[in-house]
Design a protein that fits this description.
alpha+beta, 2 domains, 8-stranded antiparallel sheet, 3-stranded antiparallel sheet, globular, metal ion binding, cytoplasm, EC 3.4.11.18, hydrolase, Methionine aminopeptidase 2
């Protein structure tokens, strides 16, 4: 998910909100969610059928009995490879819970000592409670996006695509999110962004959406996985016509530049300058016209804190005087957006993304449906972003009045789609990085991007 630079109007409304977010560095909900041990995958069910089915009836022959003895088969056999579509929980594929590390990068310059420093190594070991959760979430992301990248084709509906990604995420984390509180333990970290062409971010279908992906479309796929509120935020761009290759290459290069420059004590404004330089060294030719690729100047990367996708720090993607430094232990989503348009986004289209604000004011709600809905949101999402579709699947109906009331009361924040000018094309790549005491871990890195 992207962070949009507050414009003057919303700055007023926010009323110093960013500072408040920033001071809140610990998780808000403190849910102790380890993965449930109850296997609920299709896979388990199939095994159940095999184990119980086909047994001999009352007139069992000796042969049948003998056969039974001959097969002291375990009740369940665990899958050792991921299925297609992905439905095997990762705890079955990694029984020792040793999830693969991301790309570990040594710090540079005056921080190079950290790699071998005994004190930092100790700190890394004692503060790594979140590391396995992060690595599990990242492996889920890689396996789900492998399916997505192999299977998403023009002609598919956006709803089908979004549900495919979300069901994969739910199955692999082992959290289908239908029982109260389950989605706070793990599962979908935020709504699946499927933003096409001039739409840069925060578009996901609402109920009844009929949008079909086209051959000439450029689609940003931005989805989140969380385990115990540790959100992996990573995105890529898909296109089906090679004419967009340079646009995608520019943004991939820009994001990798941001990842390379990021580190403890680094000023975010300097990262923005490096990102912009990489991004704007590209151009793209479309229908005989050459377009410079621009960094979208009011979209940013951001820090992530437990259960909150935006912690309060921003990572600009253009040159900036922002002197804010990255610090040890922080987690950042490094995301960049390139555009053939203005390089500036505004709110447009129907909203689908929402999140309970961590600093929600305690105001009396006169609308009954708003009170009920707030209860549902708190119990199922906490401060994690959610989509209208996620309310639908929980059986909520006619909630729009209540939802809008929560937004206007400042309790829930709406994240409407962000668009550049019509006719332009935008692309995005994003990774989550952990600024561990000893190394920078690009936890969501895969062999794809
Ligand atoms: Co993000």
């Amino acid at each position: 998910m992207a962070a949009k630079t507050a414009d003057e109007l919303s700055k007023l409304a926010l009323n110093g909100n960013a500072a408040k977010h920033n001071s809140q560095t610990n998780g808000t909900n403190g849910v102790n969610g380890h993965l449930s041990d109850q296997g609920d995958s299709d896979d388990d069910k199939d095994d159940e059928v095999t184990a119980n089915g086909g047994g001999a009836d009352g007139a069992a022959s000796g042969a049948a009995k003998k056969k039974k003895k001959k097969k002291p088969k375990k009740k369940k056999t665990k899958a050792t490879v991921q299925s297609d579509p992905p439905r095997v929980p990762l705890k079955d594929l990694f029984p020792n819970e040793n999830y693969p590390a991301g790309e570990e990068v040594d710090y540079k310059d005056h921080n190079a000592y950290r790699t071998t420093n005994e004190e930092k190594r100790h700190l890394d070991r004692t503060r790594n409670d979140f590391l396995q959760e992060y690595r599990l979430g990242a492996e889920v992301h890689r396996q789900v996006r492998k399916w997505a990248r192999n299977n998403i084709k023009p002609g598919m509906g956006l709803t089908e695509i979004a549900e495919g990604i979300e069901d994969g995420t739910r199955a692999l984390t082992g959290h289908w999110g239908l029982e109260e509180g389950d989605n706070i333990k793990g599962g979908v970290g935020f709504p699946t962004g499927l933003s096409i062409n001039h739409i840069a971010a925060h578009y996901t279908p609402n109920a009844g959406n009929k949008w079909i992906l086209g051959e000439q479309d450029v689609m940003k796929v931005d989805f989140g996985v969380h385990v115990n509120g540790r959100i992996v935020d990573s995105a890529f761009t898909m296109s089906f016509d090679p004419k967009y290759d340079n646009l995608l290459a520019a943004v991939k290069d820009a994001t990798n530049t941001g990842i390379r420059e990021a580190g403890i004590d680094v000023r975010v404004g300097d990262i923005g300058a490096a990102i912009q330089e990489a991004m704007e060294s590209y151009e793209v030719e479309l229908e005989g016209k050459t377009y410079p690729v621009k960094s979208i100047k009011n979209l940013n990367g951001h820090d992530i804190i437990q259960h909150s996708i935006h912690g309060g720090k921003s990572v600009p993607i253009v040159k900036s005087n922002d002197q804010t430094k990255m610090e040890e232990g922080e987690i950042f989503a490094i995301e960049t957006f390139g555009s053939t348009g203005r390089g500036y986004v505004t709110d447009d289209l129907e909203c689908s993304h929402y999140a309970l604000r961590p600093d929600a004011p305690n105001v009396p709600l006169r609308v009954q449906s708003a009170r009920n809905l707030l209860n549902v949101i708190k119990k199922n999402f906490g401060t994690l972003p959610f989509a209208r579709r996620y309310l639908d699947r929980l059986g909520q109906e006619k909630y729009l009045l209540g939802l809008n009331n929560l937004v206007s009361s400042g309790i829930v924040e709406a994240y409407p789609p962000l668009v550049d000018i019509k006719g332009s094309y935008t692309a995005q790549f994003e990774h989550t990085i952990l600024l561990r005491p000893t190394v920078k871990e690009v936890v969501s890195r895969g062999d794809d991007y």
